[in-house]
Amino acid sequence: MACIDSKNAVIHPRLSPQEERVEWWRQTVGLFAGPLIFIAIYLMPATSLSSQGHMLAAILGLVITWWISEAVPIPVTALLGAAMCVIMGVAPARTVLAPFADPIVFLFIGSFIIAKAMSLHRLDRRFAMYIFSIKGIGNSPSMLLIACGGITALISMWISNTAATAIMLPICIGIISAMERRSSKLSLKYRTGMMLMIAYGASVGGIGTPVGSPPNLIAIGMIESLTHYRITFFQWMALGVPMLIIMFIVLSIILMFLHTPPSMAEPTAGLIHDTDDDGGGWSRGEIYTLISFGTAVVFWVLPGVIAVVSGVESGLYKSLKGVLDEGVVALGAAFLLFILPVNWKKRTFAISWEQAVKIDWGTILLFGGGLSLGKLMFDTGLANIIGTRITDIAGVDGLWGITALSVITGILVSEVTSNTASASMVIPVMIAISQAAGVSPLPPALGACLGASFGFMLPVSTPPNAIVYGSGMVPILSMLRAGVIFDVLGFITIWTGLRILCPLLGFI
Q1: Is 4 helix (H, G, I), strand (E, B) or coil?
Q2: Fewer CB within a 10 Å sphere, N or C end of the chain?
C-alpha cells in the first residue's frame, strides 16, 4: 500500500509484513556478504591483473553487492568506493575524484533545479490536467488509459521518471475513484493496467532526452570520458524519440489487451473535472518556471537544429557548440529562477536556495561515483578482462552481437538493482568489450543504457515500478506477466532501433 498526498504529489510507499521480512533479509545478507566478497577477491591470486586492477576488483565486489542489496544507501556506497580506491592505492585522489566535477554533473544539477521549480509551482500538474481535459480523452476509458501513459512519458522526457510517476499517480488514482463513483463495472484489471501504464510510460519516456533518466547522462558521460565522443542533446533525441514512440505504441497495445478497458454504461465526461482541483489562471511562479524550462530546451536543441540547416562544418554551428554546453545551459536556465520575482516587495523569487538544495543529491553523487569507478576499470585494465571473459562465455562477436549482449545484460541487471546502478556497472564493461573486438563502442554502450531503463518485471527494477506497486492496485503476478512481455519487446525495440538509427546518426 501507499500513503498518497494528492495535493503535493508525494508518495510514501508502505511494505506488507511479508515484504518487510524479505527486504530485511536481503539487506542483512548483503551487508555481511559485501565485506566477505571483498576479502575473497582480495585473497585471490592476481594472475592477469595489475595490483591496482586486483584491488579495484575487490572494491567493486563490495560496492556491487551493496548496490544490489541496498544494505547501505546506494549514493553512500558510491562515495565509499571512491574513498577506498584512494586509500588502497588504486589511483591518486585527484584522479579518483575528478569525475565528481564532470560537466554532466552540472547538467544534473541545473535540470534538477528546474524540475524542482516545476513541482513547487505545480506546472507539471497543470500540463497533465490540460492534456486530460482535451475532448475525446476524458470521455473514454480506453483513451484515458493511453493518455495516462502518454502524459507520463512526455513529462518523463524532461524530469526524472521517478518524479513523473509521483506526479501522475495521485492524478490517476483520482480519475479511477471518479470512474468508480460513476460505474460499478470498473474492474481490478483496468485499475492495474492504469497503474502499470504510468510506471512503464515513465520508463519509456525517460529515454527520449538526455535529462529524462539518470542512465542517459551516465552513458553520455562515460562515452565521452572513455571514447572521447560527445553525444549532443539533439543527437540523443534523434535516437531516443523514435524508440520512445515505437515502444509506447507497443506498450499501449499490449496493456489494452491484458487489461481491457470497460465499456461504461454512463458517459465518462467530467471525470477530469472531478479530479482537477487546481483551476484558476497562471501564477507568476508557473510563468517564470515555464520561461526557465523553455529557455533550457531551446538552447539544448538549437545547436542540433543549426547542424541540420547549415551543416556541422559551418562556423555558426561550431561557435554555438563550443559555447552552449548542455550543463552550462541548464545552470543558466536554473539561474533565471533565482532572479525572476514572484513578489518583489517580499523579495521572493521563482525558487529560493532553501528549496533548490532539496534536489536529489543522491543521484548526483551516485553518478560521480559510478563514473569514477568506470574510468578506473579502464585505466587498470579490469574492464577489458571482464569484457573478454563475458564474450568468451556468451560466444558473441561482431558489433551487433555485442550490442545484443549489451541490451540483454542491461535489462537483466536492472531487474535486480536500480537502473542508475545498472548503467554504472554495465556500460564501462560493454565499452571495453567493443574496443577489444575492434568495433564501435557507441551502440553497445547505448544498448546497455537503454536496457537499464527497460526493467519492467519487479517492483525493485525501477523507482516507477516500486511507486505504483505501493498503490496496492498492482498484484505482483500482473507486473511479472506484463514485465516479461515488455522485457522481450523492449530488447527487440532497442536492438532494432540502434541497428537502424546508429548508422544514420554517424555512431558507427
Answers
A1: strand
A2: N
CA–CA distance, 449 with 356 (Å, rounded to integer): 28
Output the 3-class SS for 124-157.
HHHHHHHHHCCCCCCCCHHHHHHHHHHHHHHHHC
Q: Judge whether 249 and 475 are in contact, CB under 8 Å.
A: no
Query: Which three three-digit cell numbers place residue 142?
Result: 480506453
The pLDDT tens digits of the residues spanning 410-444 come to: 888 777 666 777 788 789 888 888 888 888 999 99
Number of CB atoms found within 10 A of residue 341's CB:
13
- CA 161-151-184 angle, to 5 degrees, is 110
Cα dihedral value 117, 120, 124, 126, nearest 10: -130
Chain-wide mean pLDDT for the chain? 81
Of 156, 208, 141, 167, residue with least CA distance to 4:
167
- pLDDT tens by residue, 10-39: 444 455 677 678 778 888 998 999 999 999
Measured CA to CA, the distance from residue 60 to residue 377 in angstroms comes to: 9
Q: How confident is the model at residue 2 (pLDDT cuts 50, 70, 90)?
A: very low
Distance CA(263)–CA(276), nearest Å, equals: 23
Q: CA 371, CA 361: separation in Å to the nearest integer?
A: 15
User: Range with the lowest mean pLDDT among 68-77, 78-87, 240-249?
Assistant: 68-77
For residues 246 and 501, the answer to whether their CB atoms sit within 8 Å is: no
Give, as one character, the DSSP assignment of residue 343.
E
CA distances from 396 to 268, 290, 382, 383, 404 (A): 53, 48, 20, 17, 9
Could you tell me the residue ranges of all domains in the chain?
11-90, 104-356
Contact predicate 207/153, CB 8 Å: no
* Range 298-301 contact pairs with CB under 8 angstroms and sequence separation of 24 or more: 299/324, 299/329, 299/332, 299/333, 300/233, 300/234, 300/324, 300/326, 300/329, 301/233, 301/234, 301/237
Provide the pLDDT confidence category of residue 386 given band limits of 50, 70 and 90.
confident
Name the pairing type of β-strands 341-343 and 2-5: unpaired
Q: Is the pLDDT of residue 404 over 80?
A: yes
Contact 340, 288 (CB under 8 A): yes
Give yes or no for residue 313 having a pLDDT over 70.
Answer: no
285 with 124: CB under 8 angstroms?
Answer: no
**CB-neighbour burial class of residue 254 (10 A; exposed 0-12, middle 13-18, buried 19+):** middle
Secondary structure letter of residue 48 according to DSSP = S
3-class SS of residue 470 = coil
Non-local CB neighbours of 316 within 8 Å, separated by 6+ positions: 306, 310
Q: What is the mean pLDDT of residues 366-394?
A: 77
437-469 pLDDT, tens digit each: 888 999 999 999 999 888 888 776 777 887 787
